[in-house]
Design goal:
Elements (H helix, E strand, L loop, with lengths): L3 H8 L5 H14 L1 H13 L14 H9 L22 H4 L1 E6 L2 E6 L4 H8 L7 H24 L2
Antiparallel strand pairs: 1-2
Helix pairs in contact: 2-7
Length: 153
């Protein structure tokens, strides 16, 4: 059991905002695969981070996916169905969370990423209900565990 003096010494680094942010962002990074899965599920349904439909496939896209000269999509592109953002798989395979000193940002290494963001806007990230669930079920408990370890409790 730690003495009050030992506990106070362990608490000292946690008084620094950047340290606390860094610890929390470490927890975010530790759940990266889980958070990316939530983002991918939403994109497969054609939704942006607000739950709005990004778009629906046209007849021309359906025909291109079936008879075009390039590679066939890994997911069907049927006229009228929501975008699923999976043609080659590069967007999903390249997804990661970029960690900055004050935030975490979803992105992809896929070369089409800047073009997709310019065209469709807020497509990377979590919808409010997914963020709330992630915080409650994963991030907050992970952060508390990290803090308890930092304090030696």
């Amino acid at each position: 059991m730690a003495t009050a003096v030992q506990l106070r010494a362990r608490l000292e680094p946690l008084r620094d905002r950047e340290t606390v942010y860094g610890l929390f962002l470490d927890v975010v990074k530790s759940f990266e695969a889980y958070l990316i899965d939530l983002n991918q599920i939403r994109l497969e349904e054609g939704q942006d981070i607000f739950g709005d439909l990004i778009g629906r496939y046209s007849r021309a896209t359906e025909l291109e996916s079936l008879f075009g000269e390039g590679p066939r999509p890994i997911q069907p592109k049927r006229e009228g169905e929501p975008y699923n953002f999976q043609w080659t798989g590069g967007l999903f395979d390249g997804m990661y969370i970029d960690i900055f000193p004050d935030r975490a940002q979803f992105t992809s290494r896929d070369s089409k990423t800047p073009e997709l963001i310019a065209k469709y806007g807020d497509m990377f990230g979590l919808q409010p209900q997914d963020l709330e669930e992630s915080l409650r079920e994963k991030l907050y408990p992970g952060f508390m565990k990290l803090i308890r370890n930092q304090l030696g409790l």
